[in-house]
Amino acid sequence: MKLVKLLANLGYGSRKQVALMFREGRVTDAHGEVLYADDVVAHETIRVDDEPLDPAPGLLLLLHKPVGYTCSTKDPGRVVYDLLPPRFRLRNPVLSTVGRLDRDTSGLLLMTDDGALLHRIISPRSKLPKVYEATLAQDLRGDEGAVFGAGTLMLESETTPLAPAGFDALGPRHARLVLHEGRYHQVRRMFAAVGNHVEALHRTHIGGLGLEGLHPGQWRIATEEDLAKLWH
Ligand code: URA
Predict the structure, then answer these.
(1) Is the pTM of this model over 0.85?
(2) Which of 20, 80, 153, 165 is within CB 3.0–4.6 Å of 148 for a Cys-Cys bond?
């Protein structure tokens, strides 16, 4: 791919703006030699203003989503893209969230520009477990494990029952849920179905992949090791 197109697709600017960056000598190789728009060079050797070029398409990000951010691009309030470099919002192919977390849910959110990977992760057929910890308004009743594990729970306005979910009581008002599907507001609606209310919700894992030391608002690019953990 021509360098102008590559940089434009990575969100550095329009083709015209990127062509100007080349003319200004802002795009160099690792030794500081100015690159020209029709040069053919390896991605990892390219520098823009002495900084390594953003990662090539095929990107997977781990983000610790804080409460108060939405996964939509259109929301007028805080959105998860605000936590990333502004360029990441302009990439082509686009960087999408892998499923969604509610505005009031915190925890592990994956983002990718790889459509096939996205579908593999969210597909119910992949049965990738998603682990949530919920803080509840009322004490647990004691039958939640049986209700959630039965595979017969029907949420309001749904036509098929939920797949069996794993449940562990972590305290009188604190529980861990393991889901293998992702329906709209699923955890909140499951607890509503057993007469409770979720006060705080946090996703700790997708597959075997956890937050791995990321603090709220922090993100990083997934490594091969992260991918192996995801599918473990
Ligand atoms: N279930 C919910 O209710 N909310 C989320 O954000 C994720 C799962």
Answers:
(1) yes
(2) 165
Q: Is the CB of 105 under 6 A from ligand 1?
A: yes
Tell me whether the CATH fold assigned to 3-52 matches the one assigned to 129-206: no
Q: Is the CB of 181 under 6 A from ligand 1?
A: no
pLDDT tens for residues 40-85?
A: 899 999 999 999 999 999 999 999 999 999 998 888 999 999 999 9
Q: Which residue, 88, 100, 90, 101, is CA-closest to 60? A: 88
Q: What is the CATH number of domain 60-124+208-230?
A: 3.30.70.580
CATH classification of 3-52 is 2.40.30.170, yes or no?
A: no
CATH class, 129-206 region? alpha beta
Distance, C-alpha 202 to centroid of its chain = 14
Q: State which ligand 1 atom lies nearest to the alpha carbon of 188.
A: 3
